[in-house]
Design goal:
The longest helix is centred in the last third of the chain and has 26 residues. A hairpin with a 2-residue loop joins β3 and β4. α2 crosses α3. This protein has eight helices and twelve strands. The chain folds into three domains: about 110 residues, no CATH class; about 35 residues; about 120 residues, no CATH class. The chain is of the alpha+beta class and about 300 residues long. May be involved in recombination.
Amino acid sequence: MWFRQLSFYRLDESSCPDLDTLSTALAKKPFNPCSGLDWSSEGWVPPAAHADGPVLGCKGNLLVALKREDKVLPAGVIRDYLDAKVQEIEDKELRKVGRKEKQALKEQITDDLLPRAFTRSGRLSAFLDTQRRWLMIDTGTASRAETLIGELRDALPPFPAALPRTEIAPHTAMTDWLLAGVAPGGFELDADCELKAQGEEGAVIRCSRQDLTADEVQQHLKGGKQATKLGLVWRERIRFVLTDTLQLKRLQFLDVLQEEASQAGDDPASLAEATLLLMSAELGELVDELVEALGGLQNAG
């Protein structure tokens, strides 16, 4: 259940449903496997093994999971079947198969193969922190996050959820922290960063397992490069990489947190709820402190 990446969105009061409201709404679109000529299928599934509904709730935190299944039908397979069919027609009827006929044959072959195609599936977890008014999504990919938000909007229209905009741009703050050799508040510089020169063709420098206060890093910064990614550790509890798009990648909940969760119960239900409660509390505090370190939200409400 521990998130590995994080995209977070600001909610307003109208987009903070209670457990029953959200459960009823999501239950109307459960996941069903791809069937027939469907290329893909998407729907809500229980977010934990013991859950019997689409939402796991714990003290104002509502955990959900969106599952997607896609048919896998490689273009090369279709092409092989098409070539064989075209060759069969030309040999049997002694004529050339034209472009339009080839296209029709390709569509027919695709329809014939699709029900027998392999499938691949994945799930995307998220939780609504209704007290702090954050939507936390376990992804560092904007398109995947928007897909989940779109499904929530379909279930609970209009479901306002907005990307947070901070007074200080993340790349500006990260660059300043590196120049100062120290991060603010409960944050500490870790050992990874990405620096980029201005312009679309600007040079990119990536540092890994590097002392970020070293002279070589400072020289790149003084030469005009800006930080686009920065490794940070929060209160010796969570390690992550902050990006210039305000996403948290390579989330790592340190041992002290996982030990706290494991001590809360030894059955799946209590362990899942303890993990959700601990993870949501820690990520909520981390995000609040991060936003504060970036000057707060623009037009905060």
